[in-house]
Every structure is written in structure tokens, then in C-alpha cells.
Amino acid sequence: MIPLSRCLVLLGFFLLAACDNKEPIRIGFLGTLSGPSSDLGEAGRNGTLLAIEEINARGGIGGRPIELLIRNTTTNPDTARETAETLLASHIDAAVGGMTSGIAKAMVPVFNARQVVLISPTATSDDLAGQDDYLFRMNTTTAETTRLYARYCQEKGYRRVMIVAYRESPLLTNQWIQEFRDHFEATGGQIAGDLRFEAGNSNDLRAIVSEAHALAPDLLIFIANASDVARLAQETRKHGNSMPLGATEWAGTDDLIQFGGRAVDGMALLLLTDERQPPAGMLDFRDRYVKRFGHPPSYSAMFAYDAAHALGEAIERSQGRLPLKTALRELGPFAGLEHPIRFDRYGDTERTGHIALIRDGRYTLEP
Description:
The protein has helices spanning 4-20, 38-57, 77-88, 101-114, 142-156, 170-186, 202-215, 226-238, 254-260, 280-293, 299-318, 324-330, and strands spanning 25-31, 66-72, 94-97, 117-120, 135-137, 160-166, 190-197, 219-223, 245-247, 268-271, 354-359, 362-365. By secondary structure, it is an alpha/beta fold. It folds into two domains: 19-140 and 279-330, Rossmann fold (3-Layer(aba) Sandwich), CATH 3.40.50; 143-271, Response regulator (Rossmann fold), CATH 3.40.50.2300. Strand 11 and strand 12 form a beta hairpin.
């Protein structure tokens, strides 16, 4: 027979082991990790991963570690929906993702049905704003970004604008063009043409640039990811074409400058962070990100990092007393790299963009 004192020691050991072996909090990441939007997806994954590594290094949340489950949605909405369903079957507590509006929109009904929170770092579609659902958004809206672009065109005297956009992303491109048209034409501007191309198709790019040049717009705006915008700019400059170029915020990553080189010098686009006086926390984050991943973070990495930390703070503050959806809406603000994060009753945040020009391999904000 084992002595009572030894039994008590063994019981205490097993109780301590049980306390230390706490069930992890499971957070998913859903992003396009292949295809035309992979730059957004990879940056979002990295930002989420860095945030969760930091939370776990501090002991997790209430002693519980966070387990990150990463999934590739691809650019296909049906695949994204199926991927979300499979991820939710793993009993996640929440997810970061939906890095484009079309993919986020495809996944929202799945998350609503399971009543699980999904935070999109970068989705901008107005269709996703102002909805009492389980989607929370870190970004501004298409209506706001297009208003800023239209005002920039007016200030610079660009009256005829040509738009070149992906054929494969109708939710993003059609809404952006319509919103921009409404703002731009209200100030007397005119859209000279709306040309579509297939992502990565070099023959498409040459034909598009040739047609745009023939119409001689005051400004050529690209709606595409960084690598395709870089190729379009290079094709434009190849034949000595000096027309002013612009791009939507989607392309605003370091890949645009890296791949575009001199061809993107002078290009105008919207930045979603204010580079004039970045706070110390932002500078520190950039240093940690470069050390971890070997290159600077894009805005999508920053927003995903903030999204993951907001989830962690909301879970910690609620201590299981409130559903996570309620905690995110009521227990903020949450710490953010640039400013505190406040979600309204629809899960939306306020964010203001800034028009920047690429000069000498850097983004420089317009005064």
C-alpha cells in the first residue's frame, strides 16, 4: 500500500500537470497564399503569426497558449468557402482573414452560421460594412478610398482618367470603379476607358498599354496587386510613354518598388498608414518584423498584426463572460500600432488614407 503522504504528493503533481496542460485557444488564418493576391495573403499571415508568437512568449492568454491554424483560400470564392467550413470544423475560437473583399464576402455566411468571429485586415467593400454579422474589419471602405483618389485627381488637374483592372476580381474592381466614377464625375472628370486584363498574362499587358496610350488619358490607374502593377508600369515605360501613373492601395507594398524599379517612380497611390511621424510602437514592430521575416512589413501585415492582438485582448478581457463578438464591440479600445482600435456596433473601424508618390525607391506622402 502506498503511504498517504506519497499519495498526496502524487496527487499534487498530477493536479499541477493538469493545470499546466491547458487547452490552447485556436485561432485560424485564412488568406490567399497562392496566385495574384498572394502578396496580401503572405503579409497577413506573417503579421498574424508574429502577433501570436509574441502573445505566446508572454504566457498566452490566461495561461493558455494560442494555436494558429493557417489555411490557403486561393483566389476562388468557392474554394475559400469550403476552406472556411473545414477550418471551422476544427473548433477554432476566431479567425483572421479574408484579405480581399471577394474572398471575405464568400466566407462571411459560413462564419455567421457557426457564430464565430472573422476579422478581415484588408477588406474594403462597402457591401461588407454596416452589417450586424460576425465579420469585423480593420480597413477603410471603398467609398472613402475612391473619394480620396478623386480629390487627388481634381487637385492635380487630371480630367480624363483611364482605368486598367483585373478581370478576375469583379467585386473589388467593379465597386471601386463605380465609386470612383461617382466622385470623379461629380467634379467634372471623365473616365476615358475601363480596360480589363488577366492576371500574369504578358500579352494582355502589352495590348492594354497600347490601347491606353492611344487614348492619351491624363492619368492611368491600375487596379491590381503589386507584381502586376509593376509589370504594367514597366510595359508603359518601355516605349518611352511618360503618362502619369496611379494604382490602388492594393499594390502599396514593397514588392511594387522592388519589382517595378524606375518604372514606378512618380506613381501615385493611397497609403493606409501615415509615414510622416510613425509612432515608436510602429517603428519597433517594423524592426521585429524585419528580424523575423527578412523584409519590411506592408500595410496588410500591420493590420493583421493589430487584428490578432485585438482578438487576444478581447478574449483576455472578457474572461469567458461575454461572447467574443460582444467583447470586441464593447471592451475596446484595443492597442494598435498606429492608433487605438475601436469597433463600432457593426464591427467596423475608422481609418484615413493618405496619397503618396513613389520617389527614389520610397513612398513619400503628398503634403
